[in-house]
Design brief:
558 residues, alpha+beta, six-stranded antiparallel sheet, four-stranded antiparallel sheet, elongated
Length: 558
């Protein structure tokens, strides 16, 4: 069996034993799911189904796995003491680890006590202890279970004189579980412990225990967060602020505010906005969107645009930007145009319109056969330009010649005099003036959807080894494949995705970027090389289309 994936930098079809699968978006909780807390508690039951009902899970674990239990059976009182709060630092680790970790583990327990207020800080900020704990767990993976057990111990039957000590310990656990998984041996016991606390509505820690469950489940399925938290995030979590309000911009000047948490994934943010704002609810259609970050550098340097991975932790991304003091914007865009589009949601229509208009005005969507436009194409363009004037925020019923020249596709302006274009556009303006802005946008999209290059993403290529294409050509990628476009924008050669074997991005010693596209089958192959700085974007887009095509075929065969 073959699977689409990446092996040693190559993306394409490989034997599935060599491809690492990732968690599917639908397996993650939605930010907007009203039953998210109860769902997290319900889902996790399968992780501890084999444990006896009514037992204390961490006491059971201590009796089997704690260091004290390795030499002799423990009484119930001894197990209870091992898993409950203590006012004194540990002399030895709780778990039977190699001696080399003894000092590290006992130091870590002191860090937990300091953060919870049960040990003198001696001038240090309490949040510094959080960073110490995360650094130790990163550096010594063997002690990650030990740290889980230490925090659980200090938050169980807590008798601290510090009134906020126990809740700070739970908040520490919620952050720690966002970074590190537990072992398979600890998992059922820890999960059941968290489940018991999260479902005890009479207890004061059920909400943060639910957050711990969600974070741990996400970490176990997706791997933990990679970047150390920002100090402001640690302080916010320490005082109970577990969410951050984040603005996401949509094409056309619209914006949406989402609440993100420690373990919020990019795909969850996209799902939230698509379902709440755009009326896009099907998983297959939500996967046609991508979230981009734009880092602003002012006049000295071009802005950096990066497509964020679907399974990326958003707080990891924001921590990088905010830690460096960088100004950034998050923008949601539709990047795949595979499934049919419904134009019944005004926000969605506005978004699509503002994504399509730049490609219309630049002329990239317009195909010119020979040196002339067909009469039908000329009328289509005139009507679309009239709709463009009506669809804008400031309607123009009497556009000037300069307005018209600016609004027309740039490659069609020379095909006839601007006055002739103006006469055609004004005649259509008389018809479209009665439309609302949204109606004009719907008609604009509805017309241009019929064009061959609709739904294409365009990439400039400095040179290519494709023999039928010239230097400086344009590459269009859409649901029908990869197309090489000359100045006329009528493809000189096209390849559908079934011909694709793999893609590989590379860079020469002198810094020139290339993308190799391998075509053919497993017996006969050839490579087309593109000189482009957008190799990563092209490769990612191709991979997304192939993934959707495969998913559609699999669904059809079920």
């Amino acid at each position: 069996d073959w699977m689409l994936g990446e092996v040693k930098g190559d993306k394409g079809y490989f034997p599935k034993d060599y491809v690492q699968p990732v968690a599917h978006r639908s397996s993650m909780s939605s930010l907007s799911d009203p039953d998210r807390a109860s769902q997290a508690a319900t889902d996790v039951r399968s992780d501890f189904g084999s444990l006896p009902v009514g037992t204390s899970p961490m006491m059971e674990y201590a009796g089997k796995y704690f260091r004290e239990a390795t030499n002799r059976p423990l009484s119930e009182e001894e197990k209870q003491e091992l898993v409950q709060f203590t006012k004194s630092p540990l002399e030895k680790p709780l778990l039977p680890l190699d001696r080399e970790f003894d000092q590290c583990c006992t130091d870590n327990f002191v860090s937990v006590m300091k953060y919870m207020g049960d040990y003198p800080l001696r001038g240090k900020d309490s949040t510094e202890n959080v960073f110490d704990i995360i650094k130790r767990a990163k550096r010594y993976p063997d002690i990650q279970d030990e740290i889980f057990c230490q925090i659980v111990k200090q938050t169980t039957a807590n008798r601290s004189a510090k009134t906020d000590g126990c809740v700070k310990g739970w908040r520490l656990l919620s952050l720690y579980s966002a970074y590190f998984p537990c072992s398979d041996s600890l998992k059922p016991y820890l999960m059941k412990h968290l489940h018991n606390v999260s479902t005890d509505k009479s207890g004061e820690h059920h909400a943060v225990a639910t957050q711990c469950l969600e974070n741990l489940r996400t970490t176990l399925s997706n791997g933990g967060r990679q970047k150390p938290p920002h100090p402001l995030e640690v302080k916010a979590i320490g005082i109970g602020r577990s969410t951050k309000r984040q603005m996401v911009v949509l094409p056309g000047g619209q914006s949406s505010v989402v609440k993100i948490k420690t373990c919020t994934l990019v795909c969850q943010v996209m799902e939230e906005i698509c379902t709440r704002e755009l009326g896009v609810t099907a998983d297959s259609k939500i996967e046609e969107f991508a979230l981009f970050s734009i880092v602003e550098h002012g006049k000295e340097k071009e802005n950096e645009v990066e497509a964020l991975g679907r399974m990326t932790y958003l707080m990891d991304v924001l921590t990088d930007y905010e830690g460096a003091g960088q100004e950034y914007t998050l923008i949601l865009k539709k990047v795949i145009w595979y499934h049919p589009i419904k134009l019944d949601n005004e926000s969605f229509v506005t978004m699509l319109y503002h994504q399509i208009v730049p490609d219309f005005v630049s002329g990239r969507l317009v195909q010119i056969q020979g040196s002339k436009l067909s009469k039908q194409m000329m009328h289509d363009i005139a009507r679309l330009t009239a709709l463009e004037f009506r669809a804008g925020e400031n309607m123009k019923t009497t556009p000037t010649m300069a307005d018209i020249e600016k609004a027309l596709p740039q490659n069609v302006v020379p095909t006839q005099k601007v006055q002739q274009w103006a006469n055609m556009i004004h005649s259509y303006l008389n018809h479209v003036v009665r439309l609302s802005g949204n109606q004009a946008r719907v008609q604009f999209i509805g017309t241009i959807m019929q064009w061959p290059l609709f739904g294409s993403s365009f990439f400039s290529v400095d040179s290519t080894t494709e023999p039928q294409a010239k230097e400086g050509c344009l590459v269009a990628i859409n649901k029908s494949g990869i197309h090489f476009l000359p100045e006329s924008h009528v493809p000189v050669v096209s390849y559908d995705f079934s011909n694709l074997v793999s893609t590989r991005k590379l860079r020469t010693k002198d810094g020139v970027g290339y993308l190799d596209i391998k075509l053919g089958n497993m017996l006969s192959q050839r490579v087309i090389r593109l000189e482009t700085e957008q190799g990563g974007e092209i490769s990612s887009l191709i991979q997304q289309y192939i993934s959707i095509i495969i998913a559609e075929k699999e669904a059809a065969n079920k």
